[in-house]
């Protein structure tokens, strides 16, 4: 080394440091990977970035004939979509201070990568029932799209108060991959507000979802047949589940959720009509529920099969919530023989309730109604403290369940 020029020695030393640092970082990452693989933390791969590319192609719906004056803007939006979808690094813009009325419409891919839909103004469902004769189940559908972002701070108004008893889903993302939905207001859906179906790698954040507490079937965020989804910093006030996670879904994380009114945060229902269903690897962390009809609920039908497992609810505050913690393996939304116990049921196991506190509006703050043929098992209650107003007694009802308590648990099975 002494024969080398000083600059050469410095270069060799620098390369050595870089290689050593890289090796250290790789080893640390490997250690973290092994830790995560054995923990209950749900890790969600990153979805598409929520920022526009450096030099995007701007596509304004107004340039394609949209007026935002109460007339029908559906065709203009479809034309603008085709232009943006077929262009690389495009941004489809819905201008602010305007309200655009749309009939039921499907926006389809595949599109070129890095496609952003900026909603600054309001997109509103057509008020005419005749427009829904052929599309009674869905209003806005985005399907078969990858690397797609919807954001902008605008509003999507389902105009659902006109027909809540005869309704369709407001916004559906179907078969999408690497999707970000951020900073939007979605309100008054005819039925479910925001549905993710058969999607992979999703980020839904900073959403405000609202409908009157009496509006039927207006779930806030509905997750079905979807994997790797991260929901964060959302406020949901509706007439049904704030978040519902149903069959075929796994690796779901919901954090910093404000819920109520509504029916709480639900897994299921699962196993309807004797079907096989599953939900696994769910983490609900840091949620506030206020005056909801249920709190943290898992619901399955008798006669079905499958499983709901590896589910954690932690750091949840309850404010005057009925049924704060409930597992019901006898769920049934109508009176019929299928509500009674049958030979098969969806198996429920490895469920954790940790640091759940607050006020119960019902005397039974914990209700585990499990099947004798398929009892709920590996249920952990850790630091659960639920009370009633004015220090009234609460109780736990626990049927066919194998549970463990850790820390202070009240009420207890």
From TrEMBL:
GO terms for molecular function: polygalacturonase activity. Its main location: secreted. Keywords: Cell wall, Cell wall biogenesis/degradation, Glycosidase, Hydrolase, Secreted, Signal. Its EC number is 3.2.1.15. Gene3D superfamilies: Single-stranded right-handed beta-helix, Pectin lyase-like (2.160.20.10). Residues 1-28 form the signal peptide. GO terms for biological process: anther dehiscence; carbohydrate metabolic process; cell wall modification involved in abscission; fruit dehiscence. The keyword Secreted applies. The active site is at residue 263. It is found in: Secreted, Cell wall. InterPro entries: Glyco_hydro_28, PbH1, Pectin_lyas_fold, Pectin_lyase_fold/virulence. Pfam families: Glyco_hydro_28. The keyword Cell wall biogenesis/degradation applies. It catalyses: (1,4-alpha-D-galacturonosyl)n+m + H2O = (1,4-alpha-D-galacturonosyl)n + (1,4-alpha-D-galacturonosyl)m. It is an enzyme of class 3 (hydrolase). Belongs to the glycosyl hydrolase 28 family. This is endo-polygalacturonase. It comes from Carpinus fangiana.
